[in-house]
Write a structure and sequence with these properties.
about 35% helix; 5 strands; about 100 residues; alpha/beta; 5-stranded parallel β-sheet; about 30% strand
Length: about 100
């Protein structure tokens, strides 16, 4: 299965680099194939997270989120955009208000 990595603090730079990679990877998917996005992020800027959430939500049937380390704060919000979400048993998931 094809995959992308979201392994950093969520900010405008990461968002502007990740979205074209995501769209290119989705364009290359074969019929009924899914893209796995591996997530390991301490969170970051909420405006960038909302942008990622909105874009990923548009493709939620084609992408799965897999937490490999942590999805904290803004990264936890992004994780909710995936149609399928999974995490290893020793990952850290955290959200706050």
């Amino acid at each position: 299965m094809p995959f992308l990595m979201l392994f950093d603090e969520i900010n405008p730079k990461l968002t502007s680099e990740f979205i074209p990679e995501l769209e290119e990877a989705i364009d290359k998917l074969k019929r009924k194939e899914r893209l796995i996005v591996m997530v390991d992020s301490p969170g970051g800027e909420i405006s960038s997270a909302i942008t990622l959430y909105n874009i990923i939500s548009a493709y939620k049937d084609s992408v799965c989120g897999l937490v490999t380390g942590q999805a904290v704060s803004a990264a936890f919000l992004v994780l909710q955009a995936f149609g399928v979400r999974a995490a290893f048993s020793n990952t850290v998931l955290s959200f706050h208000n």
